[in-house]
Structure formats: structure tokens, C-alpha cells
Amino acid sequence: MSASQAEGEALKDGKGLVMDDVVANANHERYQATADIDIALRKTYDYYPSHRAIDFYNRYPEDIKRFADLGAKALRTSINWARIFPNGTEEEPNEAGLAFYDRVFDECLKYGIEPVITLNHFNTPFEFYYSGGWKNRELIGHFARYAETVFKRYKNKVKYWMTINEINMILSLPLVGGLINPTKEENIIQAKYQGAHYQLVASALAVKIGKEINPDFQIGCMMGAGMTYPYSCNPEDVWEAYQENEKEYALIDVQVKGVYPYSLTNKLKREGIELDITDEDLTILKENTVDFVGLSYYSSRLTAADKASLQRAGANLNSTLKNPYLKSNDFGWQSDPLGFRITLNELYSRYQLPLFVVENGYSALEKMEDNNPIEDDYRIDYIRDHLKELKNAMDDGVEIIGYTPWSGIDIISASSGMIEKRYGLIYVDLDDEGNGSLDRTPKKSYHWYQKVISSNGADL
Ligand code: BG6
């Protein structure tokens, strides 16, 4: 899960706003606002999903107890930057925000659950939007101060950290990934890559600071992963897919290898784009690479040289071409378990670092009727098929630190803002207008996954 998709209490205890807090759901212009946030800023909506979310802020003891009963050994979530530094620029942190995460981590540790924490899961304080978002170099220092604060505070409670969720998101959705409004940019490619560069430097600085505070910290990057296949064996399609993959890997290349890949440097040069990159930045990148590669995987992607006449499908980060060999879920996202094995092998071969799968799961339209728990065999099938391929990848020699399904409990969808796009092993009684008791009920998949954990994957 992530902070603003689960916590709620978006305006409580001194918290500042993040982008999620100013947009409604897909029934009320969310997709339009994600492309131009000013659309949402001009309006007041009746219901903002993140303001209440699933109320994890108040219900975390019962939720963590359910995760413990499930047998979970790790909880992957994030700290909301704006709970700690409401506007992002304050010198002193907000104690109430810090105290909340103390309570959450203590509760996890009570049950032997290891918190796996992302510093920025689409939660840059919204106030920064007005000064250009991540296009503004000053964010590096503000992020470093935030990272130092939480690293010091939780140095004995959290060992596994990731700096920026799906850092490649800034390239496809610059507002979500970097608070950069594409409609306001003369040269959006320039703006996106400048923002990405500052994020990379901020992430590397966080690695440096974290290691000084606790050398045992394991600090990773996080990629929205999923190989892009060529539509056919036509070399034109293969070249298109090759370039697409290079584009998605480029920022992770910097975080793992400490230098920009030639393909990106050259692409920017060819397009006449000059970025503000100092020698000091390059040293910081070089000297502070990550310990592991965190990733989300929902499906592979598909591209072709000539896409115009081809059908499209939904996908994480970006829509993709429809692959005729794959099945789709209620939201048009396709399932490709073998693509998971391919992606894991590709990442490991490229980076030679342990991989941590922190997101993989299946969304569906589900409605609990007459107190009957949801029978989500499709989700069981999806997770089972992916776990089999995870095991195959491990047999191939890929080093895997962990796997956390997305997600333990229904949460607000990041792209659509809809709770009714459900991913959880536990059902939450809430609809897209904000009605519902918020009661939790384990689904069939919860009980199945309990067996998976207790048998350490032998009983799938
Ligand atoms: C990833 C995000 O992009 O995909 C998650 O890290 C998100 O926050 C997940 O929830 C699934 O996407 P969505 O839009 O269906 O919630």
C-alpha cells in the first residue's frame, strides 16, 4: 500500500496537501486533472477519495493485526512527505506526523512484520507545484532534509527503504511523478528530464545520508517494470521496442550504475536538450548507488513501429498495444506471468543486484452482497501464476529479496482514484462516492495466501 492511497485524514495533525488530495476520482475528471492539474484546482468536488481513503490512519492496529494473521513478514508502504514537512520547505518537521509512523512501525514490529518504506510514493508536498515541481533544483535539498529526518527517527525500526516510487513515472505522467504540468511547458521533454535528474540526485543524496545514519540500511530504487515486446519480428518493431525499454531503464541505470547511459545522453544531445547537471551532481550520482532494485510488475507491454491501426490496452504507467496472446481483467490490464520471469531475468542480468518485487496484483470490480465474502479465484490464479514464475526466475539464478502483493487490502487506485478498482486480499466496504462502513472482510484470496505463506510457497 502507499500513504495517500490508504491513510485518509489528509488534513489532520498538521499534514499538508499532496496531489492526490486535490483531485477527485475518474467519475469526476481525474484523468483530465492528471494531465492538467489546474482543471482540478479551479473546482471543489464533493468527494476527494484520499481525504478518507480506507482510514488506515485510525484503523492501522486492526489492519496490521489482519496482516499478521495472514502471516505477512513485511508491510510495504510509504511515508507521506507532507505529513512530516507539510509545505516541504519548513526547517522543523511536524512531530504529529513523525509520531504516527512511530505507531505504525511499532505495531508492525510487535508482530515481527518488517516495514518496507518508500520515501516518496507520488507524495511530493503540493506547495512545490507552484514553483515548478521537480523542475526546481531546490527540491533536492528539501528532499534530503526530509530523508535525513525520517532516517534518523526510524533508524532502529526500518531497514528496507526505497527512495522514489516508480521513478520512471515522471517520463509518462510528469504531474504524478514530478508535479510538472505538461500543459505549461514549452519543451516538455526538457522539463521531464530536468525533473528526473533532480530526482536522481535527491535519491543518491538520500542513499548517502541513510548510509551515514545506519550502515545496515538497505536502500533501493523503484521501477515501474514490465518488458516491452515488439509487435512482430519486423526489425522496425524490434527497434521500437528496444528503444522503449532503454527509455524505461535509463533512470534505473543511473541509480544502479552511477552514470547516465550513453543512449539517454545521446538522445538528449540529438534533440538539442541541455540539462542543468553540475560536476558535483555527477559525483553524488557516482558515489551513492543503490543496494537493490525494487519494482512493480503488472504485465508486459507491447509496441510497434506503426501503432496507428493497432488496438490498445490499459497498463501501468502508460497504455500499451493489446497483445492477442494475453487475457485482460475488468480494467483492460493484461496478465503475462511468463513476462514476469522474462522481466526479472532481464533486470537481474542488467543490474546484478537483488530484486525486491514490491507490487504485483490483480484489480477487479467486486461488490460484497449479503455478507458473503468475495470469491476472487481470478486473483488467486493471477498471484499463483506469478509466484510460479517468480520461483522459475529464482531457479534461473535471479536473486530475489522479497515479494509483497499489491495489495494486502483494498485501497484507492492511484490512476483512477477509485476504490472500486479493487486489488486487496481484504475487502473494504466503501464505494466511489465515499459511502460505506469501512468494515474489513477477508476475501477467499486472503485465506489462500495464508497457506502460501505458511508453506513458504510450497502450497500454491
Ligand atoms: C503503481 C503504483 O503504478 O501501480 C501504485 O505504484 C498503484 O500506487 C499501482 O496503485 C496500480 O495502479 P492503479 O492505478 O490501478 O492503482
TrEMBL record:
Gene3D superfamilies: Glycosidases (3.20.20.80). GO terms for cellular component: cytosol. SUPFAM superfamilies: (Trans)glycosidases. GO terms for molecular function: beta-glucosidase activity. Keywords: Glycosidase, Hydrolase. One of its GO terms (biological process) is carbohydrate catabolic process. Belongs to the glycosyl hydrolase 1 family. This is 6-phospho-beta-glucosidase. It comes from Streptococcus henryi.
